[in-house]
Amino acid sequence: MPFHAAVANMAALLRSARLLKISPSGLLHITATSRNGPPLGRLYSGALGGSRTGGCARLSSPASENASSSCVWPHAVGCVRGYALASDTKNTVSVELQSKQTHQFDWALAKLDHSVRRTGRITKTLLLSVFHDICSTGYHNGNQALLLLRSCGSLLPEVPLEERTVLVHSMWEKLQELGVQLDVSHYNALLKVYLQNEFKFSPTDFLTKMEAAKVYPNRVTYQRLIEAYCQNGDIEGASTILGFMKTKGLPITEAVFNSLVTGHGRADDIESAKSILSVMQGAGIEPGPDTYLSLLTIFAEKGDLDSLEKTNEEAESADCSLMDRDIMQVIFTLARAGHQQHIPNMVERLRHEKRFLPDFMNLCLSLITQGEEDTAFDILKSFPTLEPNSYNTDSPNIGNFFLRHCVNMNTAVAKIRRYCKELQESNRHRDPLTFSLNCSLEAKNFDMSLELMKILKEQGLPVKSHYFCPLLSQNVKDKNSAGVLEVVKGMQELSVSPDVDTFSKFILPAFPSTEAARQALMNAGIPVDSEAFLSVEVHSLAVSDLGKLYNLLSDPSFPPLEHNIIRHSLILGFRKSDDVESMAKITKLLFQDKRFSVSGSMPAERASYFLYYLFDNMTKMDVQAEEHKLRKYLNRLHSQKITIPEGICKGITNQLQSYNVPKLIEDVTALMSQGYGASSDSLSPDVRVAGTEAKVARLLKKLAKLKAEDKPIGTVLNNIIHALCVEENLQHALELKQQHKEEIIVTNYTSLIYLCCRQGNVEEALNLKREMSCKDSSSILDSNKYIALVRALSNNGRVEEAVDILKEMKEKEVVLTDTHTNLLFHTLNSLVGKGGVPIIRRLQDTIFALGLTKPSANLCSPLITAYLESKDLSGALEAVIDIQKRYNHMPQIHNILVGLVENGETELLQKAIGVVSQERGEMNMFYGLFFAFLQTGRIREARKIIETQGLRARPARIQWFAEKCIYANQMETLQQMVDMTAQLFDCDRDEMYSYILRLCKETNNLEKAEEVWTKMQEENIIPRERTRRMLADIMKNNGHEVPFEVPETWYDQAATTKSAVTPITAESNTEYQANLSSLCKKGKAKEAYKVLKEAEETGLTLTASLYDLTICALLAQGDFKDAMAVKDIALSRVPDFQLTNNANNLLIIAHIKKGRANNALETLKFMMQMGHIPSHPAIMKLVNALGGDGNIAGIQEVESLMKGLDTTLNISRIFVNNKALAHIKNDDMESAVELLESVYTSPDTQHNSISFVFAKVIEDGNDKALDTLSAMAERLANHFACYRPATDLFLQLLDMDKYEEAKFMLARCNALAEQNDTLRSFMSRKAKTPGQVGKLKALLSLIPDFTNKQLSSFYLMKCHYLDNDLVSAKALHEQMQKEGMVMDNVSLKRLAVLYRNAGETAPFPEPSKSFKFYTDQLKGTVTVV
Amino acid sequence: MAASSKKAMDLFVTKIPWTVARNDLVEYFGQFGLVIKCRLPFNLDTGFHKGHCWVGFKTEKAKNSVLEKDRHVLDGTTVQIQTYRNGKGPGNQKSNSDTEHD
Q1: How many CB pairs under 8 A join A and B?
Q2: Residues of B in contact with A462 (CB under 8 A)
Q3: How far is CA A972 from CA A818, A928, A930, A937, in A?
Q4: Which end of chain B has the smaller Cβ count within 10 Å, N or C?
Q5: Is the pLDDT of residue A415 over 90?
Q6: What is the distance between the alpha carbons of residues A1012 and A1130, in angstroms, rounded to a whole number?
């Protein structure tokens, strides 16, 4: 049954799993697969009614809130002070534990969910990795188990049926082993998987097994067992169960009848099968589409085309017309039964609806898995979206999934070749063969890859050396030299010679030595004189034995080889070796032997460069350390009469100049062909300093001075123009430009053009642009500036010129990112108010026609807005229909509908809903209409719509409207929607009420919130924790007592109810386990330990995971001793007991808390050996502890351990900072400075903050270290233009209220005032916590102009708001008014709230909309400018 | 100092299709100026390269002319190019709106 409702089933499965954790009303969805199921209570009576599942149910959202608020956040954001905080908090560990647990579940769920939503299938790899993760983390529950089991059926179309069943069995066993309680839902899921996998099993045995496990079958179980009998044509067996169901009074549903149809059919009794339909009708059940599908399947199996057609007609006349998904099922059956000749007939019936695309793909995959790839290919060719998509700029690659699966199933290459040919010829795929090769290489399929490469070669496509690396990699890993040789022979067959990388990484390592490789290759008849092989050979000798290398190179039989190719190897070898003799001999060879230089050039000159590179490769430290060796080497060269040209010699001495190695320099100079005294000619420091003076006036002075001295003024001029542009002083900037036309560079033009555009001076902008292209015809503006130009032009009514600019953008291939698309939107939107329908249309059409960016609903919406603004509803509707036709978007349809409803335009409304219904489906049309009625206050009409039969909740649409209401502060409308949807099928009531609460919270509306609370009780809704919190917050804000308990953690509740059910004195093993686990989760580690010891005394063996859980709980409370005791017990009971990932992480943290960083390090090493991955907090705490201990070696060890991990966390900063701290701790300032300097002068690394180091040093009162570090920071700033450390120190001083020191620092290093980004981010960070206003003010008084007034007042207001300081806020407001500045709405609203809190009335109207609305608005204005 | 000014001519190229070899990169970027370094790391387990590489030019000019071109297409795929400069790495250019309003 692979396709039958696969997607629907899975979506429902995932939805149900998600809803499960929410509220009992969500449980309804577990059974949503059957069309007319009975009330649910009966189905899930036992297991799910219990509170345990309720506990799991609440697993998700609340804890993740915790995670974001108290645990993960400080680390993730990298707020240094967070580290110290985190380790102080007693509770941290358990919070971590809990959030991780939740995180794991969500993560697994989200991954599978995403896969299913997108594709309707899951890959085996993904499923296995989720399975593995769930097992190894040690946290698992019934929900996860259900999820895993249900995924082993038709959701794995790429896996053969038998394999899937094996998989589900292995999971089942493992889950049992882990102690997961398997209830009836799990057994039912297993049955479903059996059915989907056509697994033959004995239903009686199955029932016996269930009975033995004390799980009682329910209606679903019986139904599926009947289906199992029927699949085998065993009507008798099915009847037995049917009889049983009847005696139990269970309802017989359509699904049962459908099974019976199949059963009779399989038993070759077509007549009886047909007669079931009338039996159904007799029982009062109308045959549904599934019934007809069962019939069709029977005829398909028999290959009876006539009956197929007839049944189809019957179905249609019974108003049960079949969907594509059903037809696909029939096609699949036909293919498997060997009736391919009838398939085209069925394919014709497909309507190719878009929503079934994933099903189409899954049909193809299943067919390929079943060896019916030809049929699959025919289906593929009938795919609907095959018309080349004009908006998709990527090259076509339709059929990737098909080819990949063919390759994975090892389909014959001849067939793949044919598929590729057809795909390419029909323009569906740009390069299908290469793609197939990619797949085959990924699968490491040697034979297929080789054949595919032969075809590639035949067709004149390149076959490159590195194509073979995937085939070699495994052999190399296994040191399988024979395997490697085989691949190399394959390469030779295709006349591909291995390149350097292939040799060095994928061939030679398989052999014990280069010599052995050379011999083996020669024996196999593979030439070894290729450049690549030689250079690799040279490399391996260079780093091992220079003497042997000389012998090889000087051997007359050695072929010519340009020394550039081996230069790097030689340098490496020279630096490693002390064999000066050989070094000199090899160098001489390079100087004299023509074989090692490009023909026609002088060997001596080329070889001199070798010396240059040798020194170039070394740092100051290297040179100083090896000075002795180098001098010996140079002297040896000198004695061999080797000379180097003057230029190169000068180059080398220049490098050495600052290294303080005068003797060495003398030796180099001695090699120079003519005598030449080294003289230094260092860069004038002025050039560097120039950039640091920001004030225009000072720059101007500088400019004058430079001009007077007749020195180049380019840099200074550039800076002035830039500064003027920032100041928006266009006039002055233009004057300067006029004066210095010659020196002006392209970037100046672009800044000026941008400024002109912003100020609406179009004429000047165009002039400048013309001037710029005269100056440099290749110059182009960047996207921002182009768009600014378009905006300025179109706003000045110069549309055609704007269009020309757009065309130019296309010509110059300007790339547009999302930000730019957003800018385009704002550009179009800015034209709305100017009645700009034709202008907007012209621009919009041009943008899309040129393909500058993909059409989106957003970009299309200004046009509609323009129509709406001009009250032209019919125009707006026409435009939307046009946009839908051309770009498949329906922008602003809601607003149009609202407009039509408001104006009573019945006819147009009819037309609009017709279009929506046709293009977006009936359901969307209903929602559209519903929202329009709601919005316009036509409550009766809205109610009628939402009560339409068959309408179900669309969470996304509802959320959209709810957010809209919250955004615009429309409480009444929102309330109406929530009330009206009470009876809506599948509506998440908790979610609905939470929207109202959110708005209550925004507006601080206590009254409404309390009303909601009562209503929820009335409706019998169990609120999610998030909802309760919100409610509690509102009450607390208003000084009310919270009348209910706000659970701190999700498991608290579960555990309490649980222990009430199971008394401590429980006897049976399972109850012990449940009790123990609830105690652990509740954080009652001591009690858990007691219970565990009790169990131990009675001789009970618990599951490994339970021991682990107890250890975690004990460790979380820092009880190291007892935790180890439990570990010993566990080891004695479960011989191969190992701590899980979590326990190990906790162990590390526990060690650190006890001050035993070394033990923690051992644990880390151990867990890495076991393949566990340490958690981020564990590593951070460990490294911080090691840094505090001054343990450099330890940190390095951790760092090297981490290198092996493919971690996405950016933790290099921690290592650097802590190594520096460790050095400081060891009183080795020199190393600390060296380390930090090397990091900050290396361009490869991002310059991370080192505030942490400064903070620690200042905290410790280590003045000496602080002085040294401060000197270093200033040096980096002054000499290397690297300001981050100095800025960090400066801000750290401010942060620690050392105002005077900060002031001095600024005076010494005034470039700090220009680190606007860092300063601004300090400001925004500080403004997040209360009580920081002093620091902000200090910063602003020191550096008043790093940001504009508007922004600084924004943050100051935020601080006052957080401090609840109305007096200061008022003062700020007055100050701004005095200065004639306008306060932004967010700040104004904050001020209003302060007034309200103080019980005063604000002297201005409070901005009515939400904070979010104004924040967005503010952001909007920032992006627009 | 010598070292840092040299590294400033490095580019970091990502999204390189698997078919492209190191030599192809050297050849392609060679049209903008002399390439003195090109490192294309391989994943030793899979045998495929990692899809990114570092290209070092002899001159700043060459680097800039690469950056001036808007799109670089290798084997039909557009590759992404990033630069490395003191403190202005690609990760450092956070948009201002993030820090200004939160």
Answers
A1: 118
A2: 19
A3: 36, 19, 15, 9
A4: N
A5: yes
A6: 50
